[in-house]
Structures are given as C-alpha cells and as structure tokens.
Amino acid sequence: MKKIGIMGGTFDPPHLGHLLIAKDVQYALSLDEVWFMPNHIPPHKQLKSLTNTELRIEMLEAAIQNQPSFRLETIELEREGPSYTYDTIILLKERHKNTEFYFIIGADMVEYLPKWHRIKELVEQVNFIGVKRPGYSITTNFPIIEVETPQFDVSSTMIRKRVKEGMTAQFLVPEQVQRIIEEKNLYE
Fold it and tell me: N or C end of the chain, less CB within 10 A?
C-alpha cells in the first residue's frame, strides 16, 4: 500500500516552511510522496483577496519542481464552492484505491479540528499529522500523529505583507517563486 502525505492550503505564496514540513514529515513517516493540494475556497479563512488559481499553481509547481517525491494535486480546484477536507479525502480514496493518506496540518489547524466539517467521520478516513507551530498547542481529543520539525516562523500572510511594504520575500520562498512574485508584481 502506498503512503501519501497531503498538504492543503492556499499556497499564496508557497514558502520554504511548507517544503521543510513536507520533507520532514515524509522522512519521519516513510511516506512515498507528499502531494501539495491548493484549495479553491478555504472554509475556515476569510481572505480579502486570493491570487488567481493559475498563478498559485505556477508558484507551487516552481516550488516543488526539484523534489521528485513532491507532486501537485488539483482535486480541490476541480470543484466549486468551499473545499471541505472530508469530501476531498473521499474522492481521493475512490481514485487511489491502494493508498493510505496522511493529512499534514500545523498546530493552528489542530486547535481548529473540532470545527472541521464532518470531523468525526474524517478521522476514520485519514491519518492526521500535527506539526508544531510557534504560538500554538498540539492538544486535541482527535487522533493526531505528532511530527517534530524545526520551528520556522514564516507564513504566506507575512510574506504578502512584507512584499506589499516593499520588503523582499528572498530566503522565505524558493528562488523560482521569488522570481514569479517579482515578474508578476504580486502582493504589491
């Protein structure tokens, strides 16, 4: 049976923290691959604006291009409306029968788990991997596999804010992503 890690998010932009977490979880759990799954409309976030889907995919492809065990999964972009993890996991399991899925979330999302759509059914369908994040706890009543990764306090929100204020995202995002941000004048 194949073991696949899933990292969901807006990836607006994808940053080195995403890649570090994915690689550490892959190594710790001997996962065959990690799939980066950009979402269409995250139900838990109130975003003022989201970079268009094509540019987010372009940045994500650029970010993972040198990692053969990383892959882009666009299943959530194929559907309209909010992206609920339960619906996505059911679809993935239908498409990939001989696969065990591990859903990678940060500690901020661990705290939010009780509010997830159909969470009691979801924990029966997928293994949750909790990764520590500064300022958050990994305490929950739901089954979570905890994986230690270096604490790298970076977020897409912080990167967008830095660029908007005229600062650089260099050393926070892969070089190829930095190039796209600059060429397309994103977040200014």
Answer: N
Task: Identify the structural domains of the chain with CATH numbers, from first to last.
Answer: 2-151 (3.40.50.620)
Return all residues near 166 (Cβ < 8 A) that are at least 6 apart: none
Whole-model pTM: value is 0.91
Q: Which are the contacts of 123, defined by CB distance < 8 A and separation ≥ 6? A: 142, 143
User: According to the model, what pLDDT value does residue 161 have?
Assistant: 95
d(CA 70, CA 4): 10
The pLDDT score that the predictor gives to residue 108 is 79
Measure CA 150 to chain center: 17
Average pLDDT of the chain, as a whole number: 91
Strands of the sheet with 99-106, listed across from one edge: 70-72, 33-38, 2-9, 99-106, 127-131, 144-147
Cα–Cα distance, 110 to 137 (Å, whole number): 8
pLDDT higher than threshold 80 for residue 47: no
